[in-house]
Design goal:
Layout: E1 33-36, E2 39-42, E3 45-48, E4 51-55, E5 65-75, E6 83-89, E7 108-111, E8 117-125, E9 139-146, E10 152-153, E11 160-166, H1 175-178, H2 186-195, H3 212-225, E12 236-237, E13 242-243
Parallel strand pairs: 1-10, 4-11
Antiparallel strand pairs: 1-5, 2-3, 5-8, 6-7, 6-9, 9-11, 12-13
């Protein structure tokens, strides 16, 4: 069964992992440096990312335009005045089309004063994005930072970032570790969300050692008693398998 990655939207932002990064000694000296936030720390381990996924998958169908948000950060001493940084689109690595998948935005962006992080906002459009769970594809907007009067470039892994756009729900990172949920399907996920909104979170903490066990049993009971079908194949969903429906 095919699956999709996720960033679900509400806005569902998901990371793909890449290799190690270079180090900069601290306290940092010299001109401040700008970078995309490209790592997070989980269980004392640093996980690196080269992409952010934005999906309309969890949003109401009436939402046709939204804003993808990419976290920016700098290395340095900071400033009490507004500063600028430059971000360009790498066209030969981009499949997303301006005016169809995203709105044009200025190359020169502002970093607010007195902040350690800021946000690059990209307006995105839903109508032409892929909705297929069986054949998932993303539109890619490949972004790269350039030096400005205010900033040099930061760590190697944070100089570029891929913004991936789609309109389907992919398997969240916590699905397999949760236990008791069987194979992934967007409709199963939506049922879990109807049980508890925390299932929308990218860092959902439910599993077989807490109330997640009860929700997994509830999902099993729901699928046994409420016929639920895959929209593309017409097969009925159960917790651990899908079944063809006799015509």
């Amino acid at each position: 069964m095919s699956k999709l990655i996720y960033l679900f939207a509400v806005v569902y932002i998901v990371f793909s992992f890449v290799g190690c990064d270079q180090d900069i000694d601290f306290p940092y000296e010299g001109k401040d440096r700008i970078q995309f936030k490209h790592f997070s720390t989980v269980n004392n381990k640093r996980l690196y990312a080269d992409s952010v996924v934005f999906s309309f998958g969890l949003l109401n169908d009436t939402v046709r335009v939204d804003t993808a948000k990419i976290v920016m950060q700098y290395l340095g001493k900071g400033s009490e005045t507004e500063r600028t940084y430059n971000v360009m689109i790498v066209l030969d690595s981009t499949t997303a089309k301006e005016g169809i998948h995203y709105a044009a935005f200025p190359q020169e962006q502002k970093f607010r004063p007195g902040k350690l992080t800021d946000t690059l906002r990209v307006v995105v459009y839903r109508d032409s994005l892929n909705k297929s769970f069986a054949n998932p594809t993303n539109e890619c907007l490949y972004l790269r930072l350039q030096e400005s009067e205010d900033f040099d470039l930061g760590l190697r892994g944070g100089i570029s970032m891929r913004l991936l756009l789609n309109d389907y729900l992919s398997q969240p990172s916590w699905w397999s570790s949760h236990g008791g949920l069987g194979y992934f399907h967007p409709k199963k996920w939506r049922i879990l969300i109807s049980f508890n909104e925390d299932y929308k979170k990218s860092d959902c903490s439910f599993d077989q050692n807490n109330e997640g066990r009860t929700y997994a049993r509830g999902l099993d009971n729901y699928l046994r008693n409420v016929p639920t079908y895959d929209d593309e194949t017409g097969m009925r969903l159960y917790l651990t398998y899908m079944q063809e429906v006799e015509k």
